[in-house]
Amino acid sequence: MFQVQMKEYVEVSREIVKVMVSDNAAAVLKKSLDRQEAMIDSLLEKESQVSDLIRDFLSVEEEVAQTLLETEETKQKSSSKLRKIEKELQEVQDRNSSLESSIKFLQKELEEVRQLEEEIAEVEREAQEDTTVVIPSALYMAKLFHTVTKIDWDYNCDSTLIKGIHYGGEIAQPISIDSSQHSKIFICDYLWSLLSTEW
User: Fold this and answer.
1) Which of 36, 65, 94, 170 is the most buried (most CB within 10 A)?
2) Is 162 helix (H, G, I), strand (E, B) or coil?
3) Which residues are within 8 A (CB) of 174 and not within 5 positions of it... i.e. 6 or more apart?
4) Which domain range does residue 164 map to?
């Protein structure tokens, strides 16, 4: 469009040159000047329109840039929130997995306790049905143990010590064993060695 106007401007200039060499120069010059003035007004109007368009374009561009910034900020917030939710979900899944393992373990323990209760109930039923079974008292067991082993135990000593007096031989023999220094097998063998094999 601007090229068309420039072309018209060139034509006007040619017309001015023609007028200057013709006889009715004043009329033709006035006509050319009027045409040139109209063309300049048109150019000024177009320039104003272009300036308005540029302002509108810059305004739209600024709005688009602002919208883009807001969108990016919203995206960042959403992404951060999503990561937080994913982390919380993972923690919940981990806790859930741990709880499931605990539940399975407790169910297994409960099943074992139930089986033990059933076995105890079965033994009690058998004991009630069999009247020949006699359950000895603790006092009887202690007396029997003392009669067989001939050992008086010292129950007031330190829990790591095994102390007492063995009366099975000609002379009373003290017993003092540190259980933290010897194995259970050694202790058991030693105590068995004290018992007489003559019945």
Assistant:
1) 36
2) strand
3) 163, 164, 165, 166
4) 138-194
Question: Which position has the token pair 């602002």?
Answer: 66
Is residue 199 a part of any domain in this protein? no
Residue 129 in 3-state DSSP?
A: helix
d(CA 187, CA 172): 19
**Amino acid symbol at 76:** Q
Smallest CA-to-CA distance from 49 within 9, 6, 10, 1 is with: 1
Find the length of the chain.
199
Q: Residues with Cβ < 8 Å from 178, sequence gap 6 or more?
A: 160, 161
The confidence band for 51, taking pLDDT boundaries of 50, 70 and 90, is: confident
pLDDT of residue 136: 62
Distance CA 140, CA 145 (A): 9
**pLDDT over 60 (residue 11):** yes
pTM score over 0.70: no
